[in-house]
Design goal:
One of its GO terms (biological process) is glutamine metabolic process. The chain is 28% helix and 27% strand. The chain is an alpha/beta fold.
């Protein structure tokens, strides 16, 4: 099946972001994409100072538009971190997924909050405004089961291992790495998660805006279960396409059968809730 990643240029005008995102979703569908993913924080600038201002409840304006375009195009739509979600006085970094009938299939709240300090380069603390999610998020398609993470979640290998154990063959991480972490770890982490679990890994970033207060790395990418980069964007607004070959995935798992050769008598990873 064809996967499309939309590397959107995000502005400060929510309505413009939503309209352009939906237009690119339609374009991807017209080119045969069956699963389409939007980047982290696609309807607002990324930054703790913006989260409260742009926050919505779910359902709300942004998710309603995503539901409608998913139904119109009859696709599976991964809504990036569509919005800072407001729920019961708390804010979450939330990714919603819609099916071809427009129904919500999954709602992933970012589990690991991005609190880092690299002296002289970047300091950022999502926990100043956001609360963490507390669950794994998967959804089924006629093609395969898909696992979800958001940005910083990709650094935690155990999360991807759980998804692999639960039968996911594709992991999608909407993310917004920056100009410090992007060149160092963006592709490395994706290839690691893919090879470790013999799954396809897709990461979808906003386009780079040098004038933004937080400058995203861009380079939305798809990696095969063999660890090969099979599609990669530059820094500009674009849509990249990949044909996900589940037969190839099965062949790789047969050739190097790490999933059946794990020593469960010695170690294990478990999903607690």
């Amino acid at each position: 099946f064809r996967l499309a990643l939309i590397q959107l240029h995000v502005s400060a005008v929510k309505s413009d972001n939503l309209q352009r995102a939906c237009g690119l979703v339609r374009e991807a569908s017209a080119k045969g994409a069956k699963v389409v993913a939007l980047p982290e924080c696609f309807n607002s600038p990324y930054g703790t100072q913006y989260f409260k201002e742009y926050a919505e409840k779910i359902p709300g304006e942004s998710t309603q538009m995503l539901s409608e375009v998913a139904k119109e195009c009859s696709i599976y739509l991964v809504g990036g971190r569509s919005i800072p979600e407001e729920d019961d006085g708390k804010l979450y970094n939330t990714c919603t997924v819609f099916g071809p009938d427009g129904a919500v299939l999954a709602k992933h709240r970012k589990v690991h909050l991005f609190d880092i300090n690299v002296p002289g380069k970047i300091q950022f603390k999502e926990s100043e405004t956001l609360s963490p999610g507390n669950s794994f998020s998967m959804f089924d398609t006629p093609y395969c089961k898909v696992g979800l993470g958001i940005c910083y979640d990709i650094r935690f290998a155990e999360m991807a291992q759980v998804y692999g154990q639960k039968g996911c063959q594709l992991l999608i991480y909407p993310g917004a790495f920056n100009l410090t972490t992007g060149p160092a770890h963006w592709e490395l982490l994706q290839r690691g998660r893919a090879v470790d679990n013999q799954v396809y890994v897709a990461t979808v970033s906003p386009a780079r805006d040098e004038k933004a207060s937080y400058v995203a790395w861009g380079h939305s990418t798809v990696v095969s279960p063999w660890g090969e980069v099979i599609a990669k964007a530059g820094t500009e607004e674009t849509v990249i396409y990949t044909d996900i070959d589940l037969k190839k995935l099965a062949e790789i798992r047969q050739q190097i059968p790490i999933l059946s050769q794990k020593r469960h008598d010695l170690y294990g990873i478990e999903m607690k809730k």
